[in-house]
Design goal:
Blueprint (H helix, E strand, L loop, with lengths): L2 E2 L9 H12 L7 E4 L2 E7 L3 E9 L2 E7 L10 H22 L1 E2 L2 E2 L9 H11 L2 H14 L1 H11 L8 H15 L11 H4 L1 H12 L6 H15 L2 H4 L7 H19 L4 H14 L11 H10 L4 H16 L4 H19 L1 H10 L4 H13 L3 H14 L4 H18 L2 H14 L3 H11 L5 H13 L6 H11 L3 H10 L3 H33 L3 H16 L3 H14 L4 H9 L1
Antiparallel strand pairs: 1-5, 2-3, 3-4, 4-5, 6-7
Helix pairs in contact: 1-2, 4-5, 5-8, 6-8, 6-9, 8-9, 8-11, 9-11, 9-12, 11-13, 12-13, 13-15, 14-15, 15-16, 17-18, 18-19, 19-20, 20-21, 22-23, 23-24, 24-25, 25-26, 26-27, 26-28
């Protein structure tokens, strides 16, 4: 989200805005530091001290970050507090420039040099020995700095640093754990701090680093971070899982793109086979991802047999064909790698009982214009996968796609209508139905669609009908629908289509909806929702009616203090 500093208040949720303003007024924002041109850092005193980073371009916020755990919206109150402070500083600068003193304009406040510039100037003057001594002392005093330094520069060493990396990661995990060994969600990022730095550095230096060093990093991260799931961790924000996933992705990239020795291939294969079972990698479904890496390192029949046996065992323990498919795709790649394309094609044909293999075959056949074969596989698949509604719709989409390619209008209308009612992609299938229906028959078709929606059993029928009314500009029927179901979501969604012809009627509906809603609901969240409806009424231009309604509500519900507070904000 890009936010203009001049009017950032318009872009931010009202509740978060008020909390951020209070933080700023309470003086919780410590002095903002200019890190580099347009880049600021500040500490905001909250439940803990949180670090906020903000980047500015053309007087707009281009990037922002806060170290707090808030994840309920795009911007937290700490960022908002810093925006208020930045806005104030900019305003103060303008005031200083305009202020007259003896007939002259006062010069703007001298800006402090950016931190990056200050550091660069010091480094230019500093002797190598002084810098080395400073870094050495800093690493002795601060564990995180020491780990960061090692993570940043140890990869230039040809030695196997996996034990060093593992020790660093373990230290972070221990610091994040409570007395019972559990890692709370607010500490999860601490547990993987060094691991993430190792990964970032490895990604940046991927081209010049050796496979041995890249493997050492991935091995240490996968081995140590996966253990946190045994002791217990609240990984609500995905810090732990994301780190493991990134390490697996890096290892896979290295296995494919780097020139790896036979000895290291054996080591990687053994590691992947070992860690695919019994090491918590099933937590994120990573066991097959790591076996996929093992497949890229297979060098002989013994390894292939071991891998295939493990894949069979693991996929047999799963209930759904998804796991059998993952195992089969790994096998297919290994067969192609070790036996050639013909053997891989033969294996592929044997896997036609699996949906994703059929999908791949259909894609090739369709691209080759072999529509008859596409229709045969898709029609058979509708029967084979009848227990899986989503898959059945996928096959019907292929039948529709083929019908369009063959210009078979009857089949197009049949499958477009079926998919309109049975799939989630209503809009696209409706447009296809509209495009291929004869103009003289379209009104009749629309009415039959609406009738079928009326007879439907889903809870989305009113929404689907509303979309038809909007598409066909049947606004009188849309208004009738809202009168029958004047929910806030309906009013909010469809007001813009009705405001031209039904402005006064909408005000009455809003008022009745608010009164009914408050009769049935209590609690601040419900009061906030009611007040949002009042604001919608206000935007329709009926300020007098809104003011009168607010006063009546204050009188009727004078015991509801939270409601009175929310009404005063309207």
């Amino acid at each position: 989200m890009e936010i203009s500093l001049q009017n950032f208040e318009q872009y931010i949720d009202e509740t978060i805005l008020k909390r951020g303003l209070k933080y700023w007024k309470d003086g919780r924002v410590e002095e903002i530091e200019l890190i580099d041109e347009g880049k600021y850092e500040a500490i905001v005193n909250g439940t803990e001290d949180y670090t906020v980073h903000i980047s500015m371009e053309n007087n707009s916020v281009s990037e922002y970050y806060c170290s707090c755990p808030y994840d309920m919206g795009p911007v937290c109150k700490h960022v908002v507090a810093v925006l208020f402070e930045l806005n104030k500083e900019q305003f103060d600068d303008v005031k200083r420039q305009k202020k007259k003193n003896g007939g002259k304009t006062t010069a703007a406040k001298q800006k402090t040099k950016p931190v990056r510039q200050q550091v660069s100037e010091i480094l230019e003057k500093l002797a190598k020995e002084e810098l080395a001594q400073f870094v050495s002392k800093l690493c002795e005093r601060d564990k995180h700095t020491r780990n960061f330094f090692i993570a940043q520069f140890s990869m230039t060493d040809e030695a196997d640093n996996s034990a060093t990396y593992a020790a660093m990661i373990k230290a972070d995990i221990r610091s994040a754990q409570g007395r019972d060994g559990f890692i709370d969600y607010s500490d999860a990022d601490i547990a993987v701090r060094t691991a993430e730095e190792l990964l970032d550095n490895a990604e940046i230096n991927f081209e010049k680093e050796t496979p041995q060093q890249l493997y050492a990093i991935c091995k240490a991260i996968i081995s140590e971070v996966s253990k946190t799931f045994s002791n217990g961790v609240d990984d609500s924000d995905g810090s732990i899982g994301g780190t493991i996933e990134n390490a697996i992705e890096l290892l896979h990239k290295m296995a494919i793109e780097k020139n790896i020795s036979g000895e290291l291939k054996n080591e990687i294969f053994e590691f992947c086979v070992k860690y695919a079972t019994g090491h918590n990698l099933d937590y994120g479904g990573w066991e097959f991802d790591i076996l996929d890496i093992a497949g890229t390192q297979v060098q002989n029949d013994k390894q292939k047999k071991e891998l295939f046996s493990l894949l069979d065992k693991m996929s047999a323990n799963k209930d759904w064909h998804y796991y059998e498919e993952k195992a089969a795709f790994i096998k297919a790649d290994v067969i192609k790698q070790t036996e050639g394309n013909n053997a891989a094609e033969e294996f592929f044909e044997k896997m036609m009982h699996l949906p994703d293999f059929r999908k791949q075959k259909i894609e090739k056949l369709f691209a080759a214009g072999k529509y008859k074969e596409v229709k045969k596989i898709a029609a058979d698949s509708v029967v084979l996968d009848k227990e899986f509604a989503g898959l059945v719709n996928d096959w019907k989409e292929w039948l529709l796609k083929t019908a369009i390619a063959e210009k078979d209008v009857k089949a197009i209308l049949y499958y477009a209508r079926k998919l309109y009612f049975e799939s989630h992609d209503k809009k696209e299938n409706y447009q296809i139905l509209k495009k291929y229906t004869e103009p003289g028959k379209w009104t009749e078709t629309v009415e039959s669609v609406l009738e079928e929606l009326d007879n439907g059993k889903t809870g989305w029928n009113s929404y689907e009908k509303a979309e038809v009314f909007i598409e066909e500009k049947m606004f009188d029927r849309l208004f009738d629908l809202i009168k029958k179901d004047p929910s806030y979501s309906h009013l909010e969604s469809y007001e813009k289509y009705l405001i031209k012809d039904y402005k006064d009627e909408l005000v009455d509906i809003y008022e009745n909806s608010i009164l009914n809603y408050l009769r049935q609901n209590t609690g601040r969240s419900h009061y906030e929702k009611s007040c949002r409806m009042l604001r919608r009424m206000k935007k329709l231009g009926n300020i007098k009616e809104v003011t009168s309604l607010i006063e009546n509500l204050k009188t009727q519900y004078k015991q509801r203090r939270a409601l009175i507070e929310e009404l005063q904000k309207v």
